[in-house]
Amino acid sequence: METTETMALDATASRETASLDWTRVCDLEDLTRGSGTCVRRGGVQVAVFRISESEFRAVQNVCPHTGAPVLHQGLVGDHGGAAKVACPLHKRTYSLENGHNLSGEGGELRTYSVRVADGIVWVGTR
Amino acid sequence: MSMEAETIRPSTTSPSVLVVGAGMVASRFCETLVELLPAAKITMVGEEPRSPYDRVHLSGLFSGKVPGDLEMLPNAWYQEHGVELVLGDRVVALDPAARCATTASGRKLTADHLVLATGSAPFVPPLPGRDLPGFFAYRTIEDVEAIKSWGAKCKEGIVIGGGLLGLEAAKALVDLGLSTTVIEFASRLMPRQLDEAASALLKRSIEALGVVVRLDARSEAIAGEERVEGLRMAGGEIVPGQIVVASAGIRPRDELAKASGIAMGERGGIAVDDSMRTSAPGVWAIGECALHKGMIHGLVAPGFRMAEAAAHDIAGLSRPFPGYNAATKLKLLGVDVGSIGDAVVEGETFEDLVVSHPRKGIYQKIVWKTSTRALHGAVLVGDLEPFGELSALLESGEPVPDDPRTLLAPASAGSPSDDPIICNCENVRRSKIVAAVDAGCSALGEIKKSTRACSGCGSCAQAVTGLLHKRLAEKGITVNKSLCEHFPHTRAELFDLCWKEGIKSFQDLVEKHGNGGLGCEICKPVAASIFASLWNGHVISGGRDALQDSNDRFLANIQKNGTYSVIPRIPAGEITPKKLRVIADVAAKYELYTKITGGQRIDLLGARLEQLPSIWRELVDAGFESGHAYAKSVRTVKSCVGSTWCRFGVQDAVGLAIAIEERYKGIRSPHKLKFAVSGCARECAEAQGKDVGVIATEKGWNLFVCGNGGMKPRHAELLVQDLSESEVLRIVDRFLVYYIRTADRLTRTSVWLDEIGGIEHVRGVVLEDSLGIAAQLEAQMEDLVKGFQCEWKTALENPDILRRFKAFANDPRPNPAICFSTERGQRVPA
User: Fold this and answer.
1) CA B36, CA B354: separation in Å to the nearest integer?
2) How many CA atoms lie within 13 A of B625 on its CB side?
3) Distance from CA of B358 to the nearest CA of A (A)
4) Cβ–Cβ contact B387 with A under 8 A
5) Is 80 exceeded by the pLDDT of residue B117?
6) Partner of B276 for a Cys bridge, out of B28, B310, B441, B781, CB 3.0 to 4.6 A?
């Protein structure tokens, strides 16, 4: 189901980028501007957000508070200009930049790298 | 696995399948196969006298459940799908080559495929005296019934085995009122899952319930002459007890397979591959009798995955058994215990971290591999908050963070005193909130962050905000009424701006009047609600879906496990048997938990995201409309039967309730709106607890407004007396639009009434037109009423909207993180 082919990186891509273990997850048209979409990457579910026309973020989909697979359904916003998401269950908010829990105590989110090329969305480890 | 392999092909063949065993896993197998191959001819043979039932919740029979509550599937299901049940007859011989089974009664059953789901048997320690009356195993409904009837005559009970099942059995004896002793051979409880410290904590919590726990305890024989009188321990001591229940682990029931020459594991269990095939062609084994990669899985979740793997294989599809990380979460005798992977290993190749608060009953431990830093296991007692995150981490195989402590949430501090608890979820008292304000918090978000108050269910938001404003005022600080960091306005101010300037998109609004940012979970739904109240477009079309909370975005109420609830509109609670049947059929088809709501309608819970469109397709086709239970909107109009049936009724309450519900349905407002109509002064519909309540009089209708149930109940106030039906609607038109225009976000009418200036003020505006806006209010309502659409009907016609209703963009399968168990005969979140 999940494509494991390696991303064809252009010649200028740095060594660091190449080590991120990119996985092709879906097409750009699967993403809606201003909201999230859930994809599987290996056995893990990842919430991919299209926060503007050309900006993307990805974090774990499972809510660290309840264990429910819902974060991709959260509302996207910003706090002081940095992108964040609010969990739809209890409105705990998390930074989409670094996964920090902005509501205080409680778990944080794992973040992933996102890259879009030729209409294809790739997710890599960070 | 390729995409094509996932597509279910309609079967043209009708193979016959014989399932040996009739437990939970066998039942799941039948269910899956029926779905994949509706034409398959399935026969299921079981030695127990009843159809498959939920063994996991057996101890429920001691606390009030009856056997019927535990049924996996109703009997009608088997008939409907042509599954033949052969019960109370045991298979005694197998011929794998001929795919033939012989039963104790001499029946010979033959099929194209054979599936062994023979399960396991409790391991009964070979103690002398175990044939005495009063000695029981703990495995079947029959065992439970025997324990119940024998236990009723006893004072003291003994359970042999301190594992998962043993503690379940101990709970059963406690529920019977026996003073109970648990005997465990190992040095800790649940030795496979818990380490010493976790076991000690669990032991203390269980002992607090009066259960005696004896570890490192070796039993030698059952004491007694004619019946059980106790358990004799090594050393000669006799623990007194009139009933002994053995629950010391399980043994796979592999004897049939073994006798017929099918390959076994070294220490038992039927060897299977990833598709659950045994060494004999055409023979599969699933559940606790199967040995997969050297493991017997004694839990039901992996058993279900095996059943699905075998059913897919037989249907010519591929869904290999993924293995199982043995993450399990349960409540044992009132104590939360979570176990993930293996947290009991020790040695130089592993590192661990322990967080322990013995006085609060909290113990958390994580173990990871030193070399790769990959999580190996975790055990949680008392606080399961990190459970989801940890199981995801184990599943991913990724390293634990540099500071592993971040994986374990620190337990909140706080000493009990006599000031009231404001937030029940997080146990936060008034003094803590006041202290947070004194320390500089000036907004709800800051208080949440600093105290965790209001970060649970959110129902204390108003109480916390009230406390915050009061304290700020006491300190002489001006209260900041900004909606959020993106807008320095109140909701009412934004409503006016949008209206006067014709603003219809969030982008316009945030650029013209806000800070130009992305917005947030506060201002985006407010803007969406204002646009819906003003311009009336479909809530999730035209780019508005990204503004909506997930409830509005998917037109359903999100539940704790990420599934959704479906509530069709049943105006005034009046429904024909025919439509009731449609709801019943839909609920049965999609296995939805069904409950009557307080608003006289029917809630169908547990729908997966990807099921919502087909569920609503069936409901809309049968004439139902969206009930808007997901929206901050008019919900329902409760009513009594009124003068149509009631001998006391003076007006047609149902008729007016339907007229009101049909008029105001779907209209978005700052918060939910509840209505009721009572047919006489006896007030059976409880209209005085509603935002809008109408009570019949001899001369017409009395109109009450701004009542409230919920957290802070408040009686509605009488606005005006003796109205005709059309007058009621005209006044309610004005009242609602005035509220929608002026109320702050998430403010119910009862709070709004105080903020706007009390009942006299509202009476002035809506009855005497003191602001000169009555005609405007009426016109605005007329527009909203004319613009009504069933949001689900519209959504079903729009492929762009329907595209969003799937679990994954790159995988058609349902989300595996959503699991269910059964309670009182219905599916509930696991």
Assistant:
1) 46
2) 15
3) 20
4) yes
5) yes
6) B310
DSSP state of B425: T
**Terminal CA-CA length for chain B:** 28
User: What is the pairing mode between strands B84-87 and B219-223?
Assistant: unpaired
Given CB atoms, is A36 within the 8 Å cutoff of chain B? no
And the tokens for B553?
A: 């975005």
**Angle at Cα B153 formed by Cα B151 and Cα B156, nearest 5°?**
65
Give SS3 for B155.
coil
**At B649, is the secondary structure helix, strand, or coil?**
coil
Q: pLDDT band for B796, please (50, 70, 90 cuts).
A: very high
Q: Examine the pLDDT at B136 and tell me if it is beyond 50.
A: yes
Name residues whose C-beta falls within 8 Å of residue A82's C-beta, 6 or more positions apart in sequence.
A95, A96, A97
pLDDT at B10 over 50: no
What is the distance between the alpha carbons of residues B716 and B618, in angstroms, rounded to a whole number? 38
- Of A50-64, B129-143, B417-431, B438-452, where does mean pLDDT reach its minimum? B417-431
Is the ipTM, as predicted for this complex, more than 0.90?
no
What are the beta bridge partners of residue B283? B114
Q: Which of A50, A123, A39, A43 is nearest to B545 (CA)?
A: A50
B158 is written with which tokens? 């003994």
Q: Is the pLDDT of residue B590 over 50?
A: yes
DSSP state of B671: S
C-alpha B27/C-alpha B33 separation (Å) is 10
With bands split at pLDDT 50, 70 and 90, how would you rate the model's confidence at B458? low
Q: What phi and psi, each to the nearest 5 degrees, are found at residue B136?
A: -135, 155
User: How far apart are the two ends of chain A, measured CA to CA in Å?
Assistant: 22
For residues B717 and B690, give the distance between their C-alpha atoms in angstroms, rounded to a whole number: 10
Can you read off the two tokens belonging to residue B652? 């047609």
Q: How far is B621 from chain A (nearest CA, A)?
A: 28
Are the CB atoms for B204 and B195 separated by under 8 Å?
A: no
Residue written as token pair 């002026």: B742
Q: Please, are residues A107 and B380 in contact by the beta-carbon 8 Å criterion? A: no
The larger pLDDT score, comparing residue B324 to residue B225, is at: B225
Mark yes or no for CB contact A39/B808 under 8 Å. yes
Is A70 in the B-facing interface, judged by CB distances under 8 Å?
yes
The residue among A105, A113, A121, A126 with the most chain B CBs within 10 A of its CB, best to mutate, is A105
- In this structure, the strands spanning B91-95 and A93-95 are unpaired
Largest Cα–Cα separation, chain B: 95
| Alpha-carbon gap, residue B631 to B736, rounded angstroms | 16
Return the closest-CA partner of residue A105 out of B440, B409, B454, B402. Answer: B409
Smallest CA–CA distance from B456 into chain A, residue: A90
Q: What b/e string do you get for B418-442 counting C-beta neighbours within 10 Å, with b at 16 or more?
A: eeebbbebbebbbebbbebbeeebb
Q: Rounded distance, CA B74 to CA B130, Å?
A: 36
Q: Does residue A16 surpass a pLDDT of 60?
A: no
Question: Which secondary-structure segment (H or E) carries A37?
Answer: strand A36-41
How sure is the predictor about B266, in pLDDT bands with cuts at 50, 70 and 90?
Answer: confident
- For residue A47, list its beta bridge partners: A38, A59
Q: Directed axis angle between helix B758-767 and helix B749-756, to 10°?
A: 90
Distance (Å, rounded) from C-alpha B353 to C-alpha A95?
26
d(CA B490, CA B195): 54
